[in-house]
Design goal:
Layout: H1 11-21, H2 26-34, H3 42-54, H4 61-88, H5 94-112, H6 114-117
Length: 140
Amino acid sequence: MPRPKPTKLDADGEFYTRMMARGYSTREIIRELYGTEEEDDPKKYHNHECHLHRYKRYPDFMDVFKDEIAKVISPKLMGKGLRVLTTQMDSDEPWLANKAANDCVNFAKTRLFADEDNAVTIQFADGSMPEIGTPDGEEE
């Protein structure tokens, strides 16, 4: 009987997944994890490469990947992007200043008024209000 497949990433798998999410190549991850270069020992390097790529089949691979993006990468990108946009708003190029201003307004609007945008208002065409409750007769 074959050994059951693991379902959770081990420490190496989690490290590999988080480094992948940060944009590191497999070569860089193998160098960091195992200290191996392809030129030094091609067979050992290939074994490490195959081992790491198997982690992509684990059920929680995407959960860890998305977690890294949401908690680490997105806040950094958001901060840097907003800093660039606010600098571009002061540009001497009118089209660039206008584009940056529109992007900033759209970003701020979704953060400030998101709850109000989710509200649904129902209007009846004849202006009458239906009676609230359950019908008295049986439905057909």
